[in-house]
Amino acid sequence: MENKFEKNICCIGAGYVGGPTMSVIASNCPELRVDVVDINEERIDAWNCNDFSKLPVFEPGLENIVKKCRGINLFFSNKVEECISKADIIFISVNTPTKKKGVGAGFASDLKWIESSARQIAKFARNHTVVVEKSTLPVKTAETIKTILNSSIESSDASLEEKNKTFSIVSNPEFLAEGTAINDLQNPDRVLIGGDDNYSINLISGIYKKWIDSHKIITTNLWSSELSKLVSNAFLAQRISSINSISALCEVTGANILEVAGAIGTDTRIGKKFLRPGPGFGGSCFKKDILNLVYLCRYYGLNEVADYWEQVVKINYWQQKRISALVIKNLFGTLSNKKLTIFGFSFKANTNDTRESPSINISKDLLQEGAKLNFYDPKVNQNQIFKDLNEREEEGNIFVYKDPYEAVKGADAVLILTEWNEFNYYNWENIYSVMRKPSWIFDSRISLEQNHLRKIGFKVWTLGTS
Ligand code: NAD
Ligand code: UGA
Asked: How far is CA 157 from the centre of its chain?
């Protein structure tokens, strides 16, 4: 059958990056065929589900794009080898978590999924293939990928067809944030493309130019592009750790963290964004990318630089710990036989992702103190909460509710751990009436109107205020 598309793209990895990114490319480039492949069959089945509300990634706007493109020029499948062999361009969007064991454990990125993708590409690609690093990677990973790809061509038993294969590598890190992924992909601040051959850089820029202004497309060498992604996340996380450290100082001095953030943020050199105090940053990337940066610095003997960045992660952990400690202190130093309700389990609002969510560590601390926990989150399902907390239903320590008003019955305290907008619209009088007294609200996201809650009768702790 004749291929009606100008070029074939294959994306390896149908996760939080691969799925939304490729959907937006397919939607803006009808002349391209986009195949998103994954080894996880359950995930692919969910991407192909007839019920669009059951896509594996929840992102505002994503459902409509998948509805428009799926089966037209956007395809999700497990046919990794077949799609690689047909592709002109291959995006690698696989996971790169922190290594759990071996050299660099706890800091370095585990590149085993990158390596296995590169080996599959080396084996199944044909003709000339542009390989795009979409995953976040340590500087110099492109060198490793190149070595793997070229070894297939240089191998003594390679066939003539294999010897005629060629590859080029481009780094094109992704800057989307979860919860706003579609908007970030449609209207990015910039697109970064690092490479060393003009054909590939122009090919990848050409895709983005279909909907993004040329002046937003930055091109650099490979290593600057790889490093800029890590540094970008490190700078963003550093701002959050900075403002969170000051939230603790506000609580003991009578200053108000929102007033301080507002006052410093109006200095255009500082800027207003990413100064929102909270229970510490979560998400799959900030911590792992900073730890990776720390590892790289130590590897190159830059120990002072490594220590500087590591502190951003340490303060983040401390912020979570101090919140659980002050909940325990305010509830008379003991949580045994107490019921606490957690509102919000995802790492931020408008996503179902719970990776590194501050709710996990804070909940674990409270469980350790003997509390029974009730959970309500608008998008996170029960199984995920049990899994993240390593709890089983029959142990009777945690309960997950679909109705927030059921989740608060008989509770001593409600903890706001994610800034879901709907919490602002709850009937807090009704909630107060069904809780045990004294009834506490611990608002780690500074979401709720504390004077209103106090008038109702609640005892209120709000982050960054005294
Ligand atoms: P994810 O875990 O949601 O998805 C990765 C997918 O890759 C998984 O479904 C996994 O099964 C699949 N996979 C792994 N090896 C494979 C192989 N050999 N063949 C086929 N499929 C394979 O991860 P994610 O959140 O999408 O992140 C992917 C990368 O993008 C990471 O490097 C991350 O740091 C980076 N990143 C993530 C975000 C984000 O918001 N999540 C934003 C920017 C960059
Ligand atoms: C972050 C970056 O913002 C993206 O640019 C990057 O592509 C992505 O990491 C990645 O590489 O994975 P993400 O983690 O999805 O995106 O979401 P953010 O909006 O950055 O929030 C991260 C965490 O910081 C959340 O827990 C959030 O609640 C917290 N946060 C964010 C604050 O506490 N205060 C703020 O002002 C902003």
From this structure: 42
Kindly list the protein residues whose Cβ atom lies closer than 6 A to any atom of ligand 1.
12-18, 37-40, 43, 80, 93-96, 113, 116-117, 135-136, 174, 176, 178, 284-285
Lowest mean pLDDT among 138-152, 366-380, 443-457: 138-152
Interatomic CA distance for residues 98 and 62, integer angstroms? 28
Ligand 2, atom 31: nearest CA belongs to which residue? 274
Spot the catalytic one: 10, 29, 165, 174.
174
Told to judge if 174 belongs to the known catalytic residues of this protein, a careful annotator would answer yes
Band (153; pLDDT cuts 50, 70, 90) = confident
- At 339-349, the pLDDT tens digits run 999 999 999 99
Round to whole Å and give the CA distance between 396 and 8: 51
The tokens describing 14, both together, are 């149908």
Cβ count within 10 A of residue 101 = 8
Q: Which atom of ligand 1 is nearest to the CA of 285?
A: 34
The pLDDT of residue 416 is above 90 = yes
Residues 71 and 123: their CA atoms lie apart, in Å, by 27
| Amino acid, single-letter form, for residue 322 | R
Is 285 among the residues known to form the active site?
A: yes
Return the pLDDT at 447: 96
DSSP for 340-384, written as a single string: EEEE--SSSTT----TT-HHHHHHHHHHHTT-EEEEE-SS--HHH
Residues 6+ apart with CB under 8 A from 378: 420, 422
- Residue 8 backbone dihedrals phi, psi, to 5 degrees: -110, 130
Per-residue pLDDT at 2 exceeds 80: no
Distance CA 250, CA 465 (A): 6
Show Cβ contacts of residue 61 under 8 Å, excluding neighbours closer than 6 positions.
182, 183
Mutate to test the pocket of ligand 2, among 183, 260, 286 (most ligand atoms within 8 A of CB): 286
Task: Report CA(288)–ligand 1 centroid distance (Å).
Answer: 13
Q: Is 99 a catalytic residue?
A: no
**Separation of 177 CA from ligand 2 center, angstroms?**
6
